[in-house]
């Protein structure tokens, strides 16, 4: 004959199960929010690097560089534009860039430009890997997510 548990114990077990389910749902939503935010942040720059507006792509010859940006002459129009970046460049270099509509800013085009634009996505993948591993206890998925973020970071800096 099975032993019957009292109501208080059954209610406690049900509440604990509900807490576990709530934790899983919240951690999943947090990880999805992180990756979505990183992709959204990356898309603003990646859009111009992937498909430059008609007549807004060309070479940029760097004239001066500081810690925040490099300025130079944009080939097709001859105007002075700024390339905002954190990695050091040397004056005299020529880069393929695209002019952002309505601004005097340019972004790199091609694979280096797209990968550099995707750095916020890479950071969000790294953070989501921590949430997936620590909060959801899905260790293989966490390693795969963090590995994708690390690979994206390494490739972006290798091609930049």
Automatic annotation (TrEMBL):
Keywords: Membrane, Transmembrane, Transmembrane helix. The chain crosses the membrane at residues 20-43, 114-134, 141-159. This is Membrane protein.
């Amino acid at each position: 004959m099975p032993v019957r548990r009292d109501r208080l114990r059954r209610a406690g077990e049900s509440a604990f199960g509900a807490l576990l389910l709530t934790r899983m749902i919240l951690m999943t939503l947090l990880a999805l929010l992180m990756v979505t935010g990183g992709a959204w942040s990356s898309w603003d720059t990646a859009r111009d690097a992937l498909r430059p507006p008609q007549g807004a792509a060309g070479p940029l010859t760097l004239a001066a560089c500081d810690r925040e940006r490099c300025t130079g002459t944009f080939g097709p129009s001859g105007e002075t534009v700024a390339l905002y970046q954190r990695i050091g460049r040397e004056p005299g270099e020529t880069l393929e860039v695209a002019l952002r509509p309505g601004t005097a800013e340019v972004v790199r085009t091609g694979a280096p430009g797209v990968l550099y634009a995707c750095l916020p996505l890479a950071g969000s993948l790294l953070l989501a890997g921590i949430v997936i591993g620590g909060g959801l206890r899905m260790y293989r998925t966490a390693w795969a997510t963090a590995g994708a973020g690390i690979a994206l970071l390494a490739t972006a800096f290798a091609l930049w």
